[in-house]
Structures are given as structure tokens and as C-alpha cells.
């Protein structure tokens, strides 16, 4: 069995809003929205990868808060795990630096106004109150 490679996604929250990032690359993903993040490198803790990826992709100083229950398959051998995260005091505002061309802060009632990448949809659903998205829906 192939070893799974973890990709971390950040549910970056601020003032009740979630940050969504629009992909600019690769071409097959361009124009779709995702939770920012990336691959965990060998010997790296997922939480450390999350902090590093947010610094590289958005230029922010953020901290992981809590792991979102669940794990979602990506293209084998990758799996997506998501953490809620927040900006540290004094961090600059997020900027689309790498692989993204637009960022948007979304309130819960506007989450579905952007076309999320298929693999991010279940993770975004998991961020909402369980009573809104009961298991199996």
C-alpha cells in the first residue's frame, strides 16, 4: 500500500469570515476556489506545514487552532486534512502571492458564492454546524 501524503488546508477565520483563495495554476484548477495550504514535507508536523504554507502563499503570520474532523481523498496518494487557523496579532493582511490570483473573505451565508474545487467542498461543509449538514447529506 502506498504511503499517504498529507496536504494541509487552512480554514483561516477572521471576524466570522472564512478566507477563500482562487487558484491561478495549474491550468486545470485555475479559476476555482480552495482553502489555502499545501503538502506536508518529510519530517514536518502538519501544523508547522500549515504555518509555512500560509506564509509562502499569503504572506501572513498565522497559527493553527484546531483540526477539523475528517480526511478527504485527493489524487492518490494525497489526502486533505484541514485545520482552523487565525492570523497572529500584527500579521499583515493576506495577499495572493503564490498559485492564487484573488482572495475573498466569505461569511457563512456566502460560502457557496464561489466555485470551490471539488475536493474542498466536503471540507468546507465540515466547517459548518453539523446540524446544517447532517452526516450523509
Characterise the protein shown here.
A hairpin with a 2-residue loop joins strand 1 (about 5-15) and strand 2. Strands 1, 2, 3, 4, 5, 6, 7 and 8 form an eight-stranded mixed sheet that branches. The chain has about 140 residues and is an alpha+beta fold. The protein has a single domain, classed as Nucleoside Triphosphate Pyrophosphohydrolase (Alpha-Beta Complex). It has helices spanning about 45-60, 120-125; strands spanning about 5-15, 15-25, 35, 35-40, 60-65, 70-75, 80-85, 100-105. It has two helices and eight strands, in the order E-E-E-E-H-E-E-E-E-H. InterPro entries: MutT-like (IPR047127), Nudix_hydrolase (IPR020476), NUDIX_hydrolase-like_dom_sf (IPR015797), NUDIX_hydrolase_CS (IPR020084), NUDIX_hydrolase_dom (IPR000086). Its EC number is 3.6.1.55. Belongs to the Nudix hydrolase family. Keywords: DNA damage, DNA repair, DNA replication, Hydrolase, Magnesium, Metal-binding, Mutator protein.
Give me the secondary-structure topology:
Layout: E1 5-14, E2 17-23, E3 33-34, E4 37-39, H1 46-58, E5 62-67, E6 72-73, E7 78-87, E8 100-106, H2 121-127
CATH superfamily membership: Nucleoside Triphosphate Pyrophosphohydrolase
Q: What is the general shape?
A: globular
- Radius of gyration equals 14 Å
CATH topology: Nucleoside Triphosphate Pyrophosphohydrolase
CATH classification class: Alpha Beta
Order of helices and strands: EEEEHEEEEH
**Strands, total number:** 8
How does CATH name the architecture? Alpha-Beta Complex
Keywords: DNA damage, DNA repair, DNA replication, Hydrolase, Magnesium, Metal-binding, Mutator protein
Cofactor: Mg(2+)
GO biological process, one term: DNA repair
Protein name: 8-oxo-dGTP diphosphatase
